[in-house]
Amino acid sequence: MNPILDADGTAQSLEAVALARAIEALLLDATVQVPARLVQPLPGGGSLFVMPALDARIAITKLITFTPANAGTGRPAIQGDVVVFDVATGERLFVLDGPTVTARRTAAVSLLAAQKLAAGKKGPLLIVGAGAQGRAHLEAFAKGLPLSGVMVASRSDASAQALVEHAQTLGVPATVVRDPDEALAHCPLVVTCTPADGVVLRARPRADAFIAAVGAFTPRMVELAPDLCRHVADQGSIVVDTADAVHEAGDLIQAGLDVARYPTLKDVVEGRVKARSGPVLFKSCGWAGWDLAAARAALAALRPSAA
């Protein structure tokens, strides 16, 4: 049987802490191969992503569309699937819901970076953007860090309130904030997960701040003001998720920073990054390797004897 998992089934197979551990293990695995992804522009401003990856046991292809025009329509901006194959037999093992994988693995990458790099792991956590990524990051950080509280900023009051209520069901005190720049002074943990169609944070962060910026994944997309990025570069540390960020990290590119000089999450996991004082900016752009890690975690959850 080759199960096709819906969004709920995919979410149940991707517990946040286990997924973060799967991502860490993947970064230490020399058998992992991740070819360049294909991004095909579509009429109307959308994009088709074809993202393959493999290791010694499984191969995956993530096939999704990204349609920014769906914002506010009730249709998701990201739609598609992750198909998982057995390398030895060629058998299709299962299919995961693409948007759920994207949200969960992105949040787990941020969680792993925070576990490794954040000075103030109790927070409070400021989440800017209350959509699918905001919810996934809330759940991951609530599971993997000892959060003392959450502040939520969103251009949609209803979305912000809904995320606050969800945080409270997780046992985390939460409030809506109107001005994320003002909240920045009170939050050593920050996640920006917006559509990245404009700057959402301008103020300079605390000296002990950890910021995970996940919204922008093209040179023209942006969430963080250039001055904020340059301040962190001068006074703290910048880490990118992978070397591909050199072509994709809009926040850093628009700040005029040399993205190629910054260490990656793999460098952090392998112990090659020396601790520095000052704020930390973790810039995440996405990578099919993260989807491969999600497929590994799902395989372990669905077929424990095969993991």
TrEMBL record:
SUPFAM superfamilies attached to this UniProt entry: NAD(P)-binding Rossmann-fold domains
GO cellular component: cytoplasm
Superkingdom as given in the UniProt entry: Bacteria
Transmembrane segments: none
Pfam families, A to Z: OCD_Mu_crystall (PF02423)
Name of the protein in its database record: Delta(1)-pyrroline-2-carboxylate reductase family protein
